Amino acid sequence: MTAAHGAPSWRDAAFAAVPKQRETLMSFEHWIAFVLTSVVILAIPGPTILLVIGDALAHRGKSAFATVAGVAAGDLTAFTLSMAGLGAVLATSATLFTALKWAGAAYLIYLGVQALRSAARSGASQVPVSEGRPLQRFGKAWLVTALNPKSIVFFVAFAPQFIDASRSFLPQAGILIPTFVIMAAANAAIYALLARSLATRLTSARAQANVQRVGGLTLIGAGTLVAARA
């Protein structure tokens, strides 16, 4: 039976409600852009990855993955704290959130320039090793990752570029956080598995310089694209 006097039928009302429900979720375009950018950033070995490699070399077998778990927990902590702050900013002012996007783009470009400058003076890196039981190594990896102010600042600069202010914030945060943590854990686990063959290559002066150059250009490119889109 159709509705009388031109009133919409229950089918029309049901289908009209679908887009409104989907608008609260994160768009696929934003998510895939986040994934691709995260892959590049995570692939660049930093202090946390060097810690993972060192522990994998010193503690063979599954015990090395205590450090990997600590890295994942640390990223979860840092990213969650960062997203909580972003949510507060978005709730306060959309204009302030846009300004934060611009500041984040500038910060990404700054990090890229710093990486290129350090490439010229990169030296061989020492691979740190966490001693003690798995729980102790888990705790150290968590501390190194979660309580590093640079990690939180980076997440604050990085995450807003993939947040759509016109959509509900919490569902987007609920997608971005586990996506990044899973990818970070997988990345650290791969480095742990390949530690023997990668340790020398990644810690040499030449490798560090190349990594800094690639990472710097990537960050500058990401910051430029973000600024153009903001």
Automatic annotation (TrEMBL):
Give its localization. Answer: Cell membrane
Give the Gene Ontology MF terms in alphabetical order.
Answer: amino acid transmembrane transporter activity
The membrane-topology field of this record reads:
Multi-pass membrane protein
Q: Which InterPro entries does the record cross-reference, listed alphabetically?
A: LeuE-type
ATP-binding found in the keyword field:
no
Q: Does the keyword DNA-binding apply?
A: no
Its GO CC terms are: plasma membrane
**Matches recorded under Pfam families:** LysE
The main place the protein resides is membrane
Q: Which residues cross the membrane?
A: 31-53, 65-90, 102-120, 141-163, 175-194
Top-level taxon in the UniProt lineage? Bacteria
List the keywords (alphabetical). Cell membrane, Membrane, Plasmid, Transmembrane, Transmembrane helix
Q: Which PANTHER family match?
A: ARGININE EXPORTER PROTEIN ARGO (PTHR30086), ARGININE EXPORTER PROTEIN ARGO-RELATED (PTHR30086:SF20)
Name the chain's protein.
Answer: Lysine exporter protein
Which organism does this sequence originate in?
Burkholderia cepacia
